[in-house]
Structure formats: structure tokens, C-alpha cells
Design goal:
mainly alpha, 3-stranded antiparallel β-sheet, 5 helices, 3 strands
């Protein structure tokens, strides 16, 4: 089954959610194509568990693999990981550097309280009237 970009992004965050998978990425970040067996030994993860974690990381695009004879070797795929890091930094800092995160038609000059173009303003509450005075809304004056 093919995944769309939205599913892939969700897969990245799902993959990063598990501490063992984050440890695998930390280990691989300074190494190039590590044998699965050596990776499991270094991290103390049994082969069946390691295989499942590597499959999740590979499906999310965070690691790539190659076969050499009878062994499979893995390395971190930094392109997608770098994109995820930049996305998270932008969300955290609120810089709005990502063009898609901006509201169309708004500029920084609009200020933080300015409504987006086309937004409907909420109805104004009634004006308080003193005793014996009629209550009116702004539109009825």
C-alpha cells in the first residue's frame, strides 16, 4: 500500500516516539552502514525486537538499508530527519518561516490581534443600560 506525504510525516513522528528507535538513530548518526547484528549487540537489543524497530524506521524514511551477501546494513537517512528537525524548530519558535504555516493574505503588519482577511467579526454584546433605560446593541443606535 502506497503512503502519501501526510502518512509519511505521521510515520516519522511515530518512529521518533519510541526511545529504542531514537537510540538506534543516535548510534547510526556517526557511523556508515552498520550490520544489524553489530547494532543489536551495541544497543543490547535482541534481533527480533531490533528488526521491528528498524522496519518502522525504514518505513518512515529515517534509515536506509543495503544487503551485502547474507547481512543487512543500516545507516541513518539524514535528509528526512533534517526536514523533521527544521519543522519542529519552526513550530517551537513560532517564527512562521514555513510559508504553509502562514494565514493567506495576512502580513506581519496586521499585528497579532488582527483578524484574518474575510473573517467575520463576532456580534458585539449589548451595551449596559442604567435603570429604566432601554438596552441596545451597537447596530440599533
Amino acid at each position: 500500500m502506497a503512503r502519501n506525504n501526510e502518512g509519511r510525516a505521521g510515520g516519522v513522528f511515530d518512529a521518533l516516539a519510541h526511545p529504542t528507535r531514537r537510540e538506534i538513530l543516535r548510534y547510526l548518526r556517526t557511523r556508515d552502514y552498520v550490520r544489524a547484528g553489530a547494532l543489536g549487540e551495541a544497543l543490547g537489543v535482541v534481533p527480533s525486537t531490533l528488526s521491528g524497530h528498524l522496519r518502522v524506521l525504514r518505513d518512515a524514511g529515517l534509515v536506509e538499508s543495503r544487503r551485502r551477501s547474507t547481512e543487512i546494513q543500516y545507516r541513518v537517512q539524514l535528509t528526512l530527519l533534517d526536514e523533521a528537525i527544521l519543522l519542529l524548530q519552526g513550530l517551537r519558535s513560532g517564527t512562521g518561516d514555513d510559508e504553509q504555516s502562514r494565514t493567506p493574505g495576512r502580513t506581519d503588519d496586521d499585528g497579532p490581534g488582527a483578524p484574518a482577511p474575510g473573517a467575520q467579526l463576532a456580534e458585539q454584546p449589548p451595551v449596559d443600560a442604567g435603570p429604566g433605560e432601554a438596552t441596545t446593541t451597537q447596530g440599533e443606535r
